[in-house]
Design goal:
Elements: E1 3-8, E2 21-25, E3 34-39, E4 42-49, H1 80-92, H2 97-103, H3 107-111, H4 114-127, H5 144-155, E5 160-164, H6 170-184, E6 189-193, H7 200-211, E7 216-219, H8 225-236, E8 242-245, E9 257-263, H9 280-291, E10 294-299, H10 304-309, E11 320-324, E12 336-341, H11 353-365, E13 368-372, E14 382-384, E15 401-403, E16 408-410, E17 417-419, E18 432-434, H12 442-449, E19 463-466, H13 476-485, E20 491-494, E21 507-512, H14 516-519, H15 526-538, E22 552-557, H16 563-569, H17 573-586, E23 594-602, H18 605-626, E24 629-630, E25 634-641, E26 644-653, H19 656-675, E27 682-689
Parallel strand pairs: 5-10, 5-11, 6-8, 6-9, 7-8, 9-10, 12-22, 13-20, 13-21, 19-20, 21-22
Antiparallel strand pairs: 1-2, 1-4, 3-4, 14-18, 15-16, 16-17, 23-26, 23-27, 24-26, 25-26
Helix pairs in contact: 1-2, 1-9, 5-6, 16-17, 18-19
The structure holds zinc ion (2 copies).
Length: 694
């Protein structure tokens, strides 16, 4: 007797098939089993879903039901917890479950037939004899701070926020946690997430040295399809005990997951910026909860959200905070922070004379410098060149964005719009312009300025640059890093990329030269990111005990008394977080409110905005009932890309539950709206829950 089974298939983002499809099966299939199913004229791989949830609204009549094809019986089904994870992620981030679940599996797994997969598995078995002996490195002795953190993790349930300074040895704590876990429970698995692909080889070699390479697999965008499948199978079948990877790895099938680390948890790259816009950090917390796995978030500059969640329990905190303030091995001396007040430097100078002199002195002593360019896409805010006026929004604690197209100033929070004034509203100066200038020429300029400087051996100075442009070719980043380590490069110029993770021993000066635009950004998270970037960059300086007492961080700014810099001078993240949380609370911004953005793209700005306007009208009633605010639609900061106009609308509520309930009901209306006359001319639309950039 044939059974009715629900199967998820990969569907386009906004197709009508939101849930699962019904098929007939002769055998009883448990949820999580992969099967081949007919879909239209073709056959595709699907996933058997729970009977009762996510059933499609358009259930075909019984006589139209089609039988499923072959099942992948050679693989254990995906666990109930895994199905719960993808179900939650799809609902929370407003995507179809089929799209999200199937995209979370390796592409090759979806393409191979059961027979092909069986052959692949057999081949893998012969290639990898189970007993792969490898010499395992002995763990080093821990510092008092590390031991205390480890003991608290062992004793507590978590989630934990490991607040450890750069160089305080967080990775060693992760390693020893995993080691103890595997001693207790040899079948257990651990997941370690890192923000960037560049950081995985370094970490992989440390874990492999400790546990043996056969126990460790990694996931990142640099893998080929066969490598990805092989690693996925090792994790799914349990032979890999440790999975390392970037954000997508949060969805790896791991049947015995007991421990999750999110390293550098504040890093924006944990948030997916297209398709299903999930936060891997937030999903890691959820996954830990449903799997019964301990979760550790680690950072020297935690996100304000995580910091807020780790306030004392009696004040409602949910995370346990662990402190590791000292650096390992160098007497704990953080670099001295110096500020150059650019108001007292020659007009229009990019590099101030005192900074240049300091760089020159380093080069002549044979030491290295790191010059940090802050080039993240900050939306332009206008300022007056004579007085302190900036294009603040009168209604919000945000700066309005300068839109060149129609010379307007718009608030991306409340939508308040005005034409750009002819003269400064405060002092009448006609010279008002965007904050922050182009940075492309900085390296060239620095080369000219340092052209005559010689190294101790009499050879000329070597200036090199690392950023997204120079490292597009595979291996360029590694070779530049190797040259830096070898001491061939004296001055390394780069974007945030160089501030992360790399352990250069001979750097005694780190300088940030163009940071002011982030202090007055339209994006309320910009100052949080800047502080984190500067503190991370400062951590690159003086890693070697012998030279750490000379190490300095220089910041050039027109606003040296800004509170952010006061906290930076003291290397005091808690002080900075305290100030910023107070501001956020007063302005009801996250983490004191919850947000979602709806984005629309069309040939004209009017079409895009009209879609959002109509969407707002449809949602107005339930928004009012639930206590959700819908703000007016505005053009996005980057208003046009490849001749497509982009607009966005902010949705906000003090309650996460209310926001979720609102979005759930509203989403169907938006699908219908898209099909109707007001959706005509729309290219695409999407919802971004907990957006990182507004
Ligand atoms: Zn002015
Ligand atoms: Zn406003």
């Amino acid at each position: 007797m044939a059974q009715l089974v629900q199967v998820l298939v990969k569907t386009p983002a906004h197709s009508q098939i939101a849930g699962s499809l019904s098929y007939l099966s002769e055998q009883i299939l448990s949820p999580g089993t992969l099967v081949r199913v007919p879909l239209g004229q073709r056959e595709t791989t699907g996933l058997v879903w729970e009977d009762d949830s996510g059933a499609s609204a358009s259930q075909p009549a019984a006589e139209k039901l089609r039988p499923i094809g072959q099942a992948f019986n050679m693989l254990p089904p995906l666990s109930r917890q895994w199905l719960k994870l993808v179900g939650f992620a799809a609902n929370y981030y407003q995507r179809s479950i089929g799209e999200l679940a199937l995209a979370a599996l390796p592409q090759q797994l979806r393409e191979l037939s059961p027979a092909q997969l069986l052959r692949r598995l057999k081949r893998q078995e012969t290639q990898h004899p189970a007993s792969q002996g490898s010499v395992q490195e002995k763990p080093p002795a821990l510092t008092t701070e590390q031991s205390s953190a480890l003991a608290q993790i062992e004793a507590g349930l978590g989630p934990f926020l490991l607040f450890g300074a750069t160089g305080s040895g967080k990775t060693e704590v992760y390693l020893q946690c995993v080691e103890r876990l595997l001693e207790r429970e040899p079948q257990a698995q651990a997941l370690v997430l890192v923000p960037e692909i560049n950081l995985t080889p370094q970490l992989e070699s440390r874990f492999s040295a400790r546990f043996g390479a056969h126990k460790v697999v990694s996931f990142h965008s640099g893998l080929t399809h066969p490598q990805r499948l092989k690693n996925w199978l090792a994790a799914h079948q349990g032979s890999a005990r440790i999975v390392l990877g970037t954000r997508m790895a949060v969805f790896t099938s791991m049947p015995s997951l007991r421990f999750i680390v999110v390293d550098e948890e504040h890093d924006p790259s944990y948030k997916q910026q297209e398709g299903a816009r999930y936060s891997a950090r937030d999903l890691a917390i959820y996954r830990g909860h449903i799997e019964g796995a301990k979760v550790i978030l680690g950072s020297a500059t935690p996100s304000l959200e995580s910091w807020y969640h780790s306030r004392p329990q009696q004040e409602g905190g949910r995370y346990q905070k662990l402190f590791m303030p000292s650096r390992v091995g160098d007497g704990g001396q953080p670099p001295l922070v110096r500020f150059v007040d650019m108001n007292h430097q020659p007009k229009n100078s990019v590099f101030s004379p005192p900074l240049l002199a300091a760089i020159q002195a380093r080069v002549e002593r044979g030491e290295q410098c790191l010059i940090l360019l802050n080039r993240r896409g900050y939306a332009p805010v206008l300022h007056c060149t004579d007085c302190a006026w900036k294009s603040e929004c009168p209604h919000c604690s945000a700066f309005r964005v300068f839109h060149k197209v129609d010379r307007s100033l718009r608030c991306h929070h409340c939508g308040f719009t005005e034409r750009v004034p002819r003269t400064c509203p405060a002092c009448g100066n006609p010279d008002i312009r965007p904050l922050g200038r182009g940075t492309e020429k900085l390296e060239e300029h620095l080369n000219e300025l340092l052209g005559q400087v010689l190294r101790p051996d009499g050879t000329p100075v070597c200036v090199a640059r690392i950023d997204a442009d120079t490292t597009r070719h595979k291996g360029t980043l590694e070779s530049q890093m190797a040259r830096m380590h070898a001491g061939e490069i004296d001055v390394l110029v780069g974007t945030q990329m160089i501030a992360k993770g790399h352990d250069f021993r001979n750097i005694t000066l780190v300088a940030a030269v163009n940071v002011d635009n982030a202090l007055f950004s339209s994006d309320f998270r910009a100052s949080e990111r800047l502080f984190s970037l500067l503190l991370q960059a400062a951590g690159r300086s003086g890693r070697d005990a012998g030279i750490s007492k000379n190490s300095e961080m220089w910041v050039q700014t027109f606003y040296p008394s800004h509170p952010l810099f006061e906290a930076l001078k003291k290397h005091d993240f808690p002080l900075f977080a305290f100030q910023l949380l107070k501001e956020r609370q007063q302005a009801s911004l996250p983490p004191f409110s919850f947000q979602a953005l709806v984005r629309a793209e069309a040939r004209t700005q009017e079409t895009a905005q009209d879609f959002l306007l109509a969407a707002g009208e449809l949602g107005a009633g339930s928004a009012l009932a639930l206590g959700v605010t819908i703000y007016p639609a505005v053009p996005m900061s980057v208003q046009r890309i490849a001749n497509i106009e982009r607009a966005q609308m902010l949705i906000e509520s003090p309650s996460r539950t209310a926001l979720q309930r609102f979005l759930l009901g509203w989403h169907t209306m938006l699908h219908d709206l898209r099909q109707g006359p007001r959706g005509k001319g729309l290219v695409r639309w999407a919802v971004d829950v907990d957006p990182l950039v507004i």
